[in-house]
Amino acid sequence: MLIENWKILLALAATAVVGGTDTSSSTLSFLPSNLQARKPKAATAPVKDQLLIDTLEALRVMQDKYFQVNAGTWPSAIDWTAAVVGTHVAGALGSLSKGLLESPVTTTCEREDFLLRENLVTLYFSQLVAFYFGQDAFSLRNQAYDDMLWVVLGWLGSAQFIESHGKSLFDSDSAAGADTVRQDIDLALGNQSWHGSIWTPPFAHRARIFWELASKGWDTTLCGGGMIWNPRLAPYKNAITNELYIAASINMYLNFPGDSSSSPFMYDPPGAWSPSAETDEWPPRDPKYLKAALDGYKWLMNSNMTNSFGLFADGFHISKGLARDNSHATDIAAGKCDQRDEMVYTYNQGVLLSGQVGLFKATGELHYLHAGHQLIQNVIRATGYDLYRDAPIDDLARLNPWELPPWSGLGRGGVLEEACDVSGECSQDAQTFKGIWMHHFTEFCAPLGGATSTPDVETVKAAHAAACQQYLGWLRHNAMAALGTRDDEGKFGMWWTAGLLNGLTTASLMQMAGPHNDTLLPPQSRPHAKGGARDVVDYRNYGVPNDPMWIVQGANVPAADSEGEDEDEDEETFNNRATGQLPIDHQGGASRLRSRGENSANLADPNNRGRGRTVETQGGGLAVLRALWELSKQADGL
Ligand SMILES: *[C@@H]1O[C@H](CO)[C@@H](O)[C@H](O)[C@H]1NC(C)=O
Ligand SMILES: *[C@@H]1O[C@H](CO)[C@@H](O)[C@H](O)[C@H]1NC(C)=O
Ligand SMILES: *[C@@H]1O[C@H](CO)[C@@H](O)[C@H](O)[C@H]1NC(C)=O
């Protein structure tokens, strides 16, 4: 496979030479033909400075308002959303390290400024370290497989930050110092570059433990492969668990630093901490991780999980041949993934992206990058954005203040949106989704490095970067919408679209909808309310229905609660998710728009409905700003 790709690339390179001047980027492109020659709009310097300020502010508000130092966590988060928020902090630290500390220090004044910046990085890093202990690893061990895989990605991301930050601070070989003081310092630091390195072994350990726990979800007896979502429910093979398995596995292959502790729980080194600890038992670059990622990718891409928009539907049930104990009978159709849940969520279009870029780095095969760019372009189109005109499809300036642009598949008006956003009914799960999309998009579009198995790597890097730059206008549009949802305290809202449409209020939404009017709701969330099509179940927002498709019959499941409107609903929803005892909401769309709004103190702001602003929505704001900051910085280098 690798050899074949080399040949294709060499052929491409040869055409470039024959073609004459400057053909390298037009020969290989990840863009549709009408976009290849278009110049993306670059941001001006003041805009970029403001972006840095806004990103820092989003991080500061997230940590000041939601992180609790003595608890070592964001207490209002649930286990999996906290793992994602930790991943956002690690990502932001990487951006800060690169963005704030990259220039060399020469004068005293700059030195002070540098120390201040390093102090800032260390502040947030210390909170990440606290979260290592604040994370409820014992509880997570018994949750669904996707919950475990967020943990893997989080600590791998944190270990990667430590490595890159250490390198940027101590790039030159800081070999043993000349004087004795320096020697003592080296000894205390264990000859490591940055002090944060002492956390790499425990972080790596937790990533490995959780990868191993989660990989038990890989199953070949049903549907010819794929990860199972939750061992306590009827078998459901969904996009998210499989995308996470791919992303986490390829990340383990590329970035896991090795582990020497055999403890199944906390890091328990076989002696005092030592930077050169043996990593033989669980070495880095273990081919088993690559194999897992490849198996997962092959299964997912052949699973028929994408819909007519080219977006991933949520997952597959198995309608035939399942006995009570989940083993399948001898029926020929038995054990087939045949019943697709058509629900579309943003995060299902995101996590795969970091898997695809990792698979490219590991194999040098271009099709992973092609598929990733295609997915991004499908997402952008489904938000109602025209990449060629670099503007929303609908003319937003002509909308009346009380009008919404039409639903386009995964958003409206060029902005990413969950189906639950318009009614303000997003669960704690859904509140985390857009930030996840942005995080993995940022990973995908980061400058490609280290893909040494590709002969003409410079051509690929340039084509990849050029394609990513074409997304900048859309990304800016989304970031501006998100910024528009901030309240007086700087807290981001969940429904970014509302930040774009000035003058939109909960009252005007209710007026638009009228009694029992569902037209504002995306089609996916309508059948549910009307007891319509069975193939769309928004279980992430309304819970898992108590029916044989989801719950193993005969299992001890109490009757579903149809109310579930009380304050503790979200905690209940989460706690019950593992056992599948979830309430399901049968209210009509319009009454849903209204009922959530009435309870909130400030009726004017649609982002005050439902759960309102949370650490999860703050993570989303941080992630979209960081994505824009990273891509804007790249624009300078082109
Ligand atoms: C640090 O480096 C010195 C000199 O190379 C070496 O003697 C010492 O053992 C190293 N210390 C550790 C903890 O590895
Ligand atoms: C793919 O899934 C769709 C939607 O469930 C279904 O209509 C179609 O028949 C499936 N195609 C194949 C080849 O299984
Ligand atoms: C529902 O709302 C839409 C959008 O405001 C409006 O065009 C339509 O007439 C309403 N339908 C009913 C039955 O009220």
UniProtKB/TrEMBL annotation:
BP GO terms, sorted: carbohydrate metabolic process
Molecular function terms, GO-annotated: hydrolase activity
Annotated region described as Disordered, given as residue ranges: 558-619
Domain of life: Eukaryota
Signal sequence annotation: 1-20
Keyword annotations: Hydrolase, Signal
Protein name, UniProt field: Glycoside hydrolase, family 76
